[in-house]
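3.2 Worked example (two chains)
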Amino acid sequence: MDANIIKRNELLAQKTIAGLKSRNMEGYYAASKEEALKIALDLIPEGSSISMGGGMSVHEIGLSGALKAGNYNFIDRDAYEDKRQAMLMAYDADFFLSSCNAMTDDGILVNIDGNANRVSAIAQGPKHVLFIVGMNKVCNDIDSAMKRARNVAAPINTQRFGLETPCSKKGTCFNCKSPDTICCQILITRFSRHEGRIKVILVNDNLGF
């Protein structure tokens, strides 16, 4: 990665971490995927119960694989015939892992969900929520974060899941009411009532969608 981009990401991350702190959330900066994995494993004690949404960024830094192979109680919903049971178990987990669709450079997180299991767990339930966020997700303000979530993340995810929505065909949001829409619930996290419950690792890389 170009040295100027690295420097820009470092400075932007410092601003974003300060914003998170002002909102009762914790922020960390990782210069690489490998460093992000190390920070995450340092934050999650062995023996912890862990669940997650469908965060691609969690997989991309190798965190889900490391937890499955380690001394953790990883609740893998893909291994459950009853997916609802696995989703409900997430609310009592020690850690819930996620990425975000977008966030602002002053620490506001934006997430869109179809089934709402991810946004509901972010809002309440698990003792800790740990976000893995590539610097490509950081936006200037809430409007640009919302536009990114709806016009970048949502269309790619509908295509990834093979859903029949207007955005999957055209690549941009139509504010649809399609039966397949994944924009059912939109969660804006601007403050955490519980200090330190939400932790964000910003990664100097392009992660997720």
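3.2.1 Second chain
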Amino acid sequence: MPKNILIVDDDPDVILFLSTVVKDHGYITVDASNGREGLERAKSDHPDLILLDLMMPQKSGIALLSDLKRDDALKEIPVIMVTGVSSETGIDLEAFFKKGATGDPERNALKPEGYIEKPVDPQKLLKLVKKALS
């Protein structure tokens, strides 16, 4: 049975691109255009994986990641952050996610299973997706 991937991004073009890449490799997708809708879809669809934008209106990717990791029914769903933030802000995402957003490496509440920067390399994305789903 194909794995179900929830794509949460406020840019419809990014949703279309990510969806096309993963659908072409046998995955099923559902999408949400903001963090609030993403949380609702995660609860209703219980996806196998979430591709999550970092910066969105209404509820940021970090806020949604926090909600997911604190919810017993959702915390085991792997999350891959998809972001263009480091090129825009100079933030070292690898260090940020290694520590978790709390700054405390002992707490992994805000540590995704992976991240990829925009513009997304399709092969790198598929490699991360396969790893997260294995």
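3.3 Remarks
Residues 30 and 45 are 8 Å apart (CA to CA).
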